[in-house]
Amino acid sequence: MKRIGTNLSPCRSQRANIETANQTGRTSSSHRAEQTGCAEIIPSRSETSRSVVEQLEELCLDVDRYCVSNPQVAGTERFLKRSRQELRVAKLLQGEESQDDGLLREKVQGSLNNLNGLKCELQTAKEAPGTVAIGARFSYLREQRANKTSVEVDVVALCGQAWIEVKHLGSSKQGSGWFDSPGHCKGVHLQAMELVRAANAVENKILWKAPTVVFRFINGKVDQEVTQKLQSVGVVVVDDSFTQPFCQALPPQLPPPISVNLDIT
Question: Which has the higher per-residue pLDDT, 246 or 31?
């Protein structure tokens, strides 16, 4: 995959500009995802919301352990709250199992999607070196706008040098289904441009260097046309065609500076 060699900054400087934010759940898994711990959850007719509750309970325990062992990572407590909120919703759906209509199945599928998304964000945070935040918001001033706008980043890694957007290509999104939709393709492309624009904003640069924006697609291969569109705006694209450990898809991390020159003239 194409790599954008961006020289970026140390952890402590980048973290000063991070605000934790709620992230919308997205999904994860199958062949490649099984290798990363984000195995896809595909509901069958016999599957009920009970299994979702059990898996969310396990996820909450996993997130809690991550919070304890990684106190330096911003946003872990908020991420745990999101996981617990999904667990509460799943338990409510479990109480509605007798009403097995189309609407209930749709709600359960939504919980599954959110569960998969949470699992993949957590797994990416674990796999990426130098993770400093899960669910971060960066603001910047757009041209011709008086007020600042902001973007959300799933995982901030490499001590702030990489902004990682995690996306799941589940069974309902693979092949010609998802990316052939003009709306979905355009949405991903616009999101990529917005993230790159924010990364290059003066207020988000550290030592005049912008973070590298990475789109990680789990459980599938992205169409070549989509990959080229994302790469054309400066995004590093990682999907199942990359067979090495995920950390090797990221740009090399620069060492912290050993000296600083201060001009007071």
Answer: 246
> For residue 192, what are the CA distances in angstroms to 35, 168, 229, 253?
26, 16, 9, 22
Q: Give the separation between CA 248 and CA 200, rounded to whole angstroms.
A: 23
Indicate whether 34 pLDDT > 50. no
User: CA–CA separation, 4 vs 27, rounded Å?
Assistant: 26
Q: In this structure, are residues 159 and 130 in contact, taking their beta carbons and an 8 Å threshold?
A: yes
What tokens were used for 217? 């697609």
Strand-by-strand arrangement of the 148-157 sheet: 19-20, 133-141, 148-157, 162-168, 212-218, 235-238
CA-to-CA distance for 92 and 96, rounded, in angstroms? Answer: 7
* C-alpha dihedral sign at 157, 158, 163, 166: negative
Nearest alpha carbon to residue 3 among 214, 253, 246, 229: 214
* CB-CB contact of 134 with 75 (8 Å): yes
Half-sphere CA count of 262, side-chain side, radius 13 A = 1
What does the domain layout of the chain look like in residue ranges? 11-249
Six-digit token string for 155: 């995982």
In sequence order, what are the residues at sequence separation of 6 or more whose Cβ sits closer than 8 angstroms to the Cβ of residue 235? 4, 192, 195, 196, 213, 214, 215
End-to-end CA separation in angstroms for the chain: 45
Distance from C-alpha of 40 to C-alpha of 114, rounded to nearest angstrom = 12
pLDDT at 16: 45
pLDDT digits 0-9 by tens, 180-191: 555 556 688 899
118/102: higher pLDDT: 118
CB-CB contact of 18 with 133 (8 Å)? yes
